[in-house]
Design a protein that fits this description.
By secondary structure, this protein is an alpha/beta fold. The chain has seven helices and five strands, in the order αβαβααβαβαβα. It has a five-stranded parallel beta sheet, sandwiched between helices.
């Protein structure tokens, strides 16, 4: 999605111009990170990927750190948990410019797929990351309804090499 910004610039001082220039530069860098977060290995890998994105100037909302986890909301009813988590995550997707999805697993995480669908329907830029060799679809690495939402999928079955490839891409490109 292309954003066009029309600015009226005050020429009275450099400070106003510097503030406007900063605001324009920061547009389009908010990422909602979707993916599985149900064991320590998944959480640690999500943090590694998010740290690469942050290193390149992106603001990353990582639900396992910045959102609500059902396990952390003791004493709430199931209905309250669903409402809190769903509303928080949808709100953060709406604020994001980009959705970055960890697609690992025999099939990608169901919640991440819903988040991807919401983001795609709202015109967000969508990217994926896959290191898992398992595939649910015969002859296809990913379901076409998931892969079709993505601008690019960073894929390498060696997790460290996949992170290096993401790092190299970000050194020369923007998401």
């Amino acid at each position: 999605m292309l954003k066009i910004i029309l600015l009226t610039v005050c020429i009275c001082c450099f400070n106003c111009f510097a503030n406007i220039a900063f605001a324009v530069e920061s547009i389009g860098n908010k990422i909602y990170f979707a993916g599985p977060m149900f064991c320590m290995a998944e959480k640690e890998f999500n943090v590694k990927i998010a740290s690469v994105l942050k290193k390149h100037g992106y603001q990353v909302f990582l639900p396992q750190q910045d959102g609500f986890e059902a396990a952390m909301l003791e004493g709430k009813s199931e209905e309250e948990l669903i409402t809190l988590i769903f509303q928080k995550d949808v709100s953060e997707i709406e604020k994001a410019d980009i959705v970055f999805v960890n697609l690992d697993g025999r099939i990608p995480d169901e919640g991440a797929c819903v988040e991807l669908g919401i983001a795609y329907a709202k015109g967000k830029r969508c990217y994926g990351f896959k290191t898992d060799t398992r595939a649910a679809e015969q002859g296809l690495d990913l379901n076409p309804m998931i892969a079709g939402c993505m601008i690019k999928i960073f894929k390498n079955f060696d997790g460290e090499k996949a992170i290096q490839e993401l790092e190299e891409f970000l050194q020369h490109n923007k998401l």
